[in-house]
Automatic annotation (TrEMBL):
Gene3D superfamilies: Leucine-rich Repeat Variant. GO terms for cellular component: nucleus; rixosome complex. It comes from Polarella glacialis. This is Pre-rRNA-processing protein Ipi1 N-terminal domain-containing protein. Residues 25-34 have a biased composition (Basic residues).
């Protein structure tokens, strides 16, 4: 037997040393389980730290807000300017809204923050007008309204490019709600700053073009167009009256390179005279402004013709039945302002933008008259009567501006004549009613002169204000001034047609025009009526019709007659129409001339400027009374005896 001693015993011992699968290893007594190499220790230790002050809050200083932190809704010591500007780009709309509220609070409590960081604030808020959340846009608009009222306008106008970017971005946004808020923002800027301080010349044309395509927001677009098309702040007095042609737009052709390339223009000659202007090779193009206003007029609906009881709890603007009238009033005001801009502005910021209607658009307006949709007719006792009269006066003056040179050259004389006769009918009715009511309300000559001067101030103030009512109850001074300015335009048409032999008015139309002018100029048609504002306002127009050239003799119109200054007659050279007036309505010119000594007697020393103006008119009448038996000589003979009470005083 082989010897298996130590060798075999060692082999079996190595086999038993191998660990078995899934065998539980028993640890020795008193030793714990070893931790794994990838174990995570969750135990921690806490120690108190003493912080007498925080450097971050100390750097903010006192210029912090006292609002809650909207991210954690816990009270903090305040937010500084940099934090508020950073929150304006936060993903939460509530944080962005509270950031504008906080910025408003911070700038209101600390004046130095706004003055030192105006550029940074405006740059940070440049995209707020396009914010997708309505409450953020409202908060931004409230802050902008406060900012415009707080800082000087010169400081705001330095950032006009940023403001214009906000407006253009909002108006061209895909969201209808953002576009509607953009209109409110534009109206805010235009009402507080003016179009010239917010928009440049090129930007004005682009914004007007954008507005004319927003057909579903007519009620909001029309006030913006009315402000964008405002003429220069003051036409009267800014140019010497001896040079009236400087108040009118120079008839120089505006040529674009694209029109020349496309062959749309022909007949270009040198010299620069108006008769040598560029002739259009086709029909006139439609004006976007006129297209928008005519569409808004037709879609507005009709005013109720019956009696509408006055509601003491609501203003006229708040009545739902008055909405069509307000839309038509604003549309007529925009058309009037567009034609005024093309007529009276020497240089237009909308030079590349057509404000003159096409022949087709004039025909559409003529169709409105032919269908009886204008003038508006309401009963005398209706609360909408003042609104209807204001619409009629506005549209009448727009039509008079068309007849006095605002119409395109290819317009039909039939359409233009129909419009002019309809406007004359409005002036006959509304102007006469306003003159009568205004004459009854004046207590004495002093109040009449004051009311006439107030009409001139109101006319100047309206250049940059919202559309207002022309007539209001017993105070018809505004309606009288509107009627006189419209009559001035129609008389300029008569003077131009008399010179060219191709007038739009027949002899019976001239008689109606003379009758309407006489009734307004005499305070309702009664020559013995007391002195009223209508009589005072009509003095320059009647003097110009008599050929006394008040615009050429007076460098600055007196304030009491500024609202009735005959600019249209001054533009055509103030021709003498006395013979035509005497033939159309005998005795009219004599009644006008006899009014001036009467005014001098009643005025006394209350208004030296107006008294001096009246005396200059009588002196000019004496210079023209050179032919014995002539019309001016007869007028002077009937006027001089009435001067005795003014020169010698009352008897005794």
């Amino acid at each position: 037997m082989a010897n298996k001693g130590p060798l075999s015993k060692g082999k079996s011992k190595s086999k038993s040393a191998k660990p078995k699968d899934f065998a539980k290893i028993k640890n020795k007594v008193g030793k714990g389980k070893k931790a794994a190499t990838n174990a995570t220790h969750t135990d921690y230790k806490v120690k108190k730290v003493q912080m007498p002050s925080q450097n971050a809050l100390g750097e903010k200083g006192e210029e912090v807000t006292h609002r809650k932190n909207t991210t954690t809704f816990r009270e903090r010591s305040g937010l500084g300017l940099l934090e508020l500007l950073a929150h304006m780009g936060h993903h939460s709309s509530k944080v962005r809204r509270d950031a504008y509220h906080g910025l408003h609070e911070l700038c209101k409590e600390h004046d130095g923050v706004l003055r030192a960081n105006l550029a940074r604030i405006l740059d940070a808020t440049a995209t707020a007008s396009m914010d997708p959340t309505a409450e953020v846009r409202v908060a931004f608009r409230i802050f902008q309204a406060w900012l415009i009222e707080t800082i000087p306008q010169d400081a705001v106008s330095a950032f006009a490019a940023t403001l214009a970017l906000q407006v253009r971005s909002a108006l061209s946004h895909v969201s209808a709600e953002v576009r509607e808020d953009g209109l409110k923002l534009l109206e805010l800027y235009l009402s507080r700053l003016g179009s010239e301080q917010v928009l440049s010349q090129a930007e004005s044309a682009r914004v007007v073009d954008t507005l004319c395509h927003m057909n579903s927001h007519a009620e909001s677009v029309l006030p913006c167009l009315h402000r964008l098309l405002q003429p220069p702040p003051s036409r009267l007095g800014s140019t010497p009256a001896s040079q009236p042609w400087k108040r009118l737009r120079l008839d120089l052709p505006q040529v674009s390179l694209q029109d020349v390339v496309d062959g749309k223009l022909r007949g270009v000659t040198g010299g620069g005279a108006p008769s040598q202007a560029i002739e259009a090779s086709g029909p006139s193009l439609d004006s976007p402004v006129w297209a928008f206003c005519l569409r808004a007029w037709l879609q507005a609906g009709d005013l109720p013709r019956g009696t509408i009881a006055a509601n003491s709890g609501k203003a006229l603007q708040e009545l739902s039945v008055a909405r069509p009238g307000w839309v038509k009033l604003r549309a007529a005001a925009v058309l009037e302002r567009a034609l005024e801009r093309t007529r009276f502005c020497a240089s237009s910021s909308l030079s590349s933008f057509s404000l003159q209607p096409s022949a087709a658009q004039v025909a559409s307006l003529s169709g409105v008259v032919r269908r009886g949709e204008w003038p508006l007719q309401v009963e005398a006792g209706s609360s909408l009567r003042v609104l209807a009269d204001s619409v009629n006066l506005r549209m009448a003056r727009a039509i008079c501006l068309l007849a006095a040179g605002g119409a395109p050259p290819d317009v039909s004389s039939l359409h233009l004549g129909r419009l002019a006769r309809a406007a004359l009918g409005v002036l006959e009715q509304v102007g006469l009613n306003a003159a009568r009511s205004e004459a009854n309300s004046d207590a004495n000559s002093a109040s009449a002169v004051a009311a006439a001067a107030a009409a001139g101030i109101a006319m100047s103030a309206e250049l940059d204000s919202e559309v207002r009512l022309c007539a209001s109850g017993g105070q018809g001074v505004g309606a009288v001034s509107y009627a006189l300015r419209s009559l001035d335009l129609l008389w300029s048409c008569v003077a131009t047609g008399q010179e060219s032999g191709n007038g739009m008015f027949a002899s019976e139309d001239v008689t109606r025009l003379a009758e309407a002018t006489m009734r307004i100029a005499s305070g309702g048609g009664d020559e013995e009526a007391p002195i009223s504002a209508a009589i005072v306002l009509a003095v320059p127009l009647t003097a110009s019709l008599l050929g006394l050239r008040p615009c050429a003799s007076s460098a600055q119109p007196p304030p009491a007659v500024g609202a009735g200054w005959p600019e249209a007659l001054a533009a055509v050279g103030e021709p003498c129409l006395a013979e035509l007036l005497e033939k159309a309505r005998p005795g009219t010119v004599a009644s006008w001339a006899r009014t001036w000594p009467k005014l001098l007697w009643y005025l006394g020393s209350s208004d030296p400027a107006l008294s001096s103006f009246l005396l200059s008119l009588i002196l000019e009448l004496a210079k023209r009374a050179t032919q014995p038996g002539g019309l001016h000589g007869r007028l002077l003979s009937s006027t001089l005896p009435l001067l005795v009470p003014f020169l010698a005083g009352p008897p005794g």
